[in-house]
Fold this protein.
Amino acid sequence: MIVEQLSLVDFRNYAAAELALAPGANVFVGRNGQGKTNLAEAIGYFATLGSHRVSQDAPMVRDGADAAFVRARLAHGERRVQLEAQLNRSGSNKARVNGSPVRTAELPRYAQVVLFAPEDLQIVRGDPSARRRFADQLLIQRAPRLAGVLADYDRVLKQRNALLKSARARGVRGEGLSTLEVWDDKLVALGTDVIRARLRLAAELAGPVARAYTAIAGADHRPQLQWALSVGGADPEEDDSPAEAPVADAAAIEQLFRSALAERRSAELDRGITLVGPHRDDLVLRIRDLPVKGYASHGESWSVALSLRLASAELLRAESTLGDPIVILDDVFAELDADRRARLAGIVADYEQVIVTAAVAEDVPLELRARTVRVEAGTLHEESDAPV
Ligand SMILES: Nc1ncnc2c1ncn2[C@@H]1O[C@H](COP(=O)(O)OP(=O)(O)OP(=O)(O)O)[C@@H](O)[C@H]1O
Ligand SMILES: [Mg+2]
């Protein structure tokens, strides 16, 4: 799919902007702080219902305005769909598809976007939560049904935590909390669904990540992805020594889950939080058999993060009925040496649409510079002189 038309009102530093985009590469060039990443963020919003930079939506509403509007016309073959998101500073957001109101959660069914940005270095270097978020966002893009499962799991987790906290306050110990069992059942059922989906995802990403890494780095450093599961005895939230992830079916995971809960029961009551479940797991990334986090060089870390996104694009492309995902590369080329730039350009060039931002046009390989738009303080200007 491609974005044919993007329109922004009161989004970040854009009071009002209209932009036609072409199939193939579209390059946005401008000095720092002019609004390039804001464009990438606006398009990405439809796929993830959030920003890749902030966890709240309020910063995306232009200073002084009450609501931001992002509209995009997406095209896939002969089909057109008009998406609209209204981000409200207070109150819930609103969405429309072809002019009709829909639940905001419906938007990602129409928009598939893979955005790579400098913030993605956090996926490989940051806390386990960054890797869980990466995996869960991709799961939702591939199977929107999972958004409901993940949300239900979070709700059950909060309720179970509230119960543990109040039990702790009352000094309840050991087996003295029978109401916990109802919540255990829900936690295990939903959590097992999440764990299985994540294990499958890691297995399916392995090949595409290895190919993307070799293609970018020009060398095979044997990238690996493996979940460290808290139901399997690991506690990646608190130490760095992950246990081996068991390859297991639903019944086996449920059983592990239940015995891990039984084992941690008194620790949970002591601390008033749930210590076992997919909210405590980590997707451990390795190259050359060493963890990326803490060992890999800056350039290697970049290559792994980029490979995760390129592999995501490959998975989405392979199974989507909507064509290719829109690939967005925000500020990527400046970070790469000439060889890696050329290789990356070669990889993304055959996607239906690629959106590239750069402070310096010359950092972007020529083959991607068919169309350049200059971004200046929230205004957009088509570049008249074609690149030489
Ligand atoms: N809610 C907002 N209201 C008004 N302006 C905003 C808002 N949020 C961000 N901005 C402005 O948008 C600009 C940043 O835009 P953006 O991140 O897109 O820059 P950029 O062109 O990608 O720059 P760089 O090359 O440094 O990455 C900043 O000047 C910032 O002050
Ligand atoms: Mg930027």
